Each structure stands twice: as C-alpha cells, then as structure tokens.
Amino acid sequence: MTNDLTLADFDYHLPDDLIAQQPSTQRTASRLLHLDSCGKLHDKTFKDFTRLLRSGDLLIFNNTKVINARLLGKKLSGGRVEVLIERITGTHTAVAHIRSSKAPRAGTALLLENQLTVTVTGRQAALFQLSFPDHVEKLLDQFGKTPLPPYIQRRADAHDLQRYQTVYARKPGAVAAPTAGLHFDQAMLDTLDTLGVQRAFVTLHVGAGTFQPVREQHIRDHVMHAERYLIPPETIHALRQAKHEQRRIIAVGTTSARTLEAAAEPLSLRGPEASDTQTIAAETQLFITPGYQFQWVDALLTNFHLPQSTLLMMVSALGGMAAIQRAYQHAVAERYRFFSYGDAMFIETPQR
After folding, report:
1. Could you tell me if 257 and 314 are in contact, meaning their C-beta atoms sit under 8 angstroms apart?
2. Domains and CATH numbers, the chain
C-alpha cells in the first residue's frame, strides 16, 4: 500500500489559531478525542482517560528528558547563528543543526549566549560537529534554552522549563518532548496504580528530525531519521508477560510506539535467548506507514500531528487512514488544540 501513497494523502487544512501556543492551565485539563475499535469518535476530557483503561493494561512511557538544546549567538567573525543540539556524542562533543546566513566551516568559533565559545569541528551530513570547552550537559543546563518546536511562535520562558517536560522524565538527551506524556500529572499516575494499570518505561531521545518535513512526494522514497532507543530488562519482562497473558499494551506517544515496534524481533524471542536481564539498545530508522502490521502496540495515546508528517502516517497505520482523516476533520471542526501543547487522542486498533 505504501508504494502508492503520496504526501497529498496525509494533508489536511489546519487554521493557524488551532496550533496551541501555550500549555493548558493544568496538565490534565486538555481535551481527549477517543477513536474506538469500531471506528467511532467520542469527545472527552483527558481526565476521562482512566475510564478507557482496563485492569491489567500495560502503559509504556518514554522517560527521556528534554535538554536545553537551543543556543543563540554569533560567529566570532560576525554573523548571527542559532544552534539546536541534535545529539550529545561525548562529554565535550555534540552534533547540531546550525542556522546562519552562511554555513560555518570546520575551525569556526561560535560565541553563544554571549559567554560560551564553541568550535565547529566538521560536518555529519546536514549536521555540524561541535566541540565544547566543558561537559556539554552542564553547559546546556547553564546557558541553553528550552527547544520549543518551530510552530510555537514565541520564545521559551521559565514556565516552559517545567511544562515542556513530563513529570516522569529521567534520562537527559531529547531535544523535543514526548508530548503525549505532558498530559499526565503525578495524581493521575497514582490513579493508574489504584486501577491495576501497569506502567513501564522505555527511552528514546527525540531528535529535531521529528520536525523535518517529508520532501519526497512518494512516501516510499522517504528516508526516516535515526533515533537511538533503550528498553530496560524490567520493561522487557513486563512486555513479554502482558503479551503472553493477552493484556493490552498501550503506547503513550509515538516515540514509545516506535521503540516497541523497532524492537519487535528481540522482544519476540523465545527460549534461552529470550533473556529479561539484558537491555535492548539500538538505533532505529523504522518508518511506519499504512499497511504496517503492528506487533506490540494495541492502542496509542498521542497528540495531533502536523499535516504530511511521518507521525501522521504512523497514526494512520494504526487507526486506519479513513478513520484518522475523519478524526482530524472532526478535531478541526470542534476546535481541538493541535501539536505539542495541544489536546490528546486515544486510538484503539480497529476490530478485525
């Protein structure tokens, strides 16, 4: 099916005023559109989410933590630059996107945030290799800004430090939040425990590539950006047990879903090779499009995604193209809030 799909199949009209520029007043105060397994739509609030769950469901969260990845400054030779760290590669090194009037060459020194001198050491495809004078994480904590997505038309402020981060974020490395998780507060997580809903964690550091547009008209020609993920032993055990007992596995966010499906083969191992004591760690370029058969994800909690984006293609693969198109038309008509700080959607796999 993917061979015949084009960008136009994943387009929709979104009024600019539906793109959320601020988070909701409280994490759980957003709305929730439920696409059930029969293809019916239900308008709810996020606080209703717990009523859609069953005792024994396994929710998989991405515990990545957003780093202060955006730095503004200039070349020492003059000219403004904007640096967005894509990935920390060592204690003193990183690769980044750099916006400037002219691409900096190897050896170029950048003065960032008026205090931090960083050197460009080379190129890695579209990314620039950078050398920092001290530990990268420490310097980003000190000088960096919250890397709000490009469709949020304002500068990050102190409020974003807390709200553009899940309450369960533990592993620093992402430059974009796993936004489905932004709707949870600790009280709701505690409620899941009382309902007998199981929780487990994976780590996928979301890169800036998640915002890169698909430039190929035919979906089959698109090459997905790479992201590194990690599944710890306790999560592997929980997943295999849930699968064996035929309990639902629900991904909280597309990053969690991509992690589970990228690791489908090692997760499915049986016999002596199926160790629950070894972490699964790898890099994935998995591109999920309609026609893909999900092996581990039974349902998905997610936000609304950009037109023509790889994330919209993924949710269309899970919920069905016609059902997702209908859901998005409904969300626009009912004035749901879109994208990172917007409302949520709960998608159950269609009945077969």
Report:
1. yes
2. 2-66+161-348 (3.40.1780.10), 70-145 (2.40.10)
